[in-house]
């Protein structure tokens, strides 16, 4: 359990932290390559290899997360394809209870995500998690991905916070590393961001499986 008396602000990632990363992994590894294969008359395997190669080259940059960039590069309506499997968008276990608990404890809760605004608004409309958040910040609005130190300086200018009294939760080790370098005191990693994949062994940061580990289970 965290010492909540030492925390005023909670910064939360979305995909893989509040929401199940299965949706995004399935989209990028299976669904989008399938649509690209159909549009270009190639095999699914060829399309998957192409998408993996192209995304690996841009990993950690804003373009990697930008739906409009991929629409231009792949010559597809990526946002429309994104919505074809929206039934897979799901909130991770205990997330709603956790967000309500933050409100009860009077903690300032900010969503800080690399998600492109088009996909972000769609997921918020489906899940409704924004009702429990004080602010929502996309890295696309700041011009830097969370993997960059520039993101954290820009976030501080946009939404001032005390790093020594801030908790940041994310599933991305590179992002957590950037937050640590910036000076955020309290860091947590999600062990199983994708419900269809096994939990990871995390040694670089304190890690949890679900949010009930830090706020306690919902009372029955």
TrEMBL record:
Keyword Metal-binding in annotation: no
E.C. code: 3.1.3.5
Keyword tags: Hydrolase
Molecular function terms, GO-annotated: 5'-nucleotidase activity
InterPro entries, A to Z: HAD-like_hydrolase_sf, HAD-like_sf, HAD_sf
Pfam family, one: Hydrolase
Enzyme's top EC category: hydrolase
PANTHER family (alphabetical): GMP_IMP NUCLEOTIDASE YRFG (PTHR43434:SF3), PHOSPHOGLYCOLATE PHOSPHATASE (PTHR43434)
Name the UniProt record assigns to this protein: GMP/IMP nucleotidase
């Amino acid at each position: 359990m965290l010492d909540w008396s030492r925390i005023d602000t909670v910064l939360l990632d979305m995909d893989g932290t509040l929401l199940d990363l299965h949706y995004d992994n399935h989209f990028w590894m299976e669904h989008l390559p399938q649509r690209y294969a159909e549009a270009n008359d190639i095999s699914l395997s060829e399309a998957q290899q192409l998408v993996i190669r192209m995304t690996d080259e841009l990993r950690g940059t804003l373009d990697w997360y930008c739906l409009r960039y991929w629409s231009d590069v792949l010559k597809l309506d990526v946002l429309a394809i994104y919505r074809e499997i929206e039934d897979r968008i799901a909130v991770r276990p205990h997330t709603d209870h956790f967000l309500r608990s933050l409100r009860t404890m009077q903690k300032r809760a900010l969503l800080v995500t690399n998600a492109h605004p088009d996909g972000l608004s769609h997921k918020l409309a489906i899940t409704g998690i924004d009702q429990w958040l004080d602010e929502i910040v996309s890295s696309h609005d700041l011009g830097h991905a969370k993997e960059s130190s520039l993101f954290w300086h820009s976030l501080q200018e946009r939404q001032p916070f005390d790093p020594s009294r801030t908790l940041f939760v994310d599933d991305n080790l590179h992002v957590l590393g950037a937050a640590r370098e910036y000076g955020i005191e309290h860091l947590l990693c999600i062990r199983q961001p994708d419900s269809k994949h096994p939990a990871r062994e995390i040694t670089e940061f304190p890690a949890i499986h679900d949010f009930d580990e830090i706020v306690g289970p919902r009372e029955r």
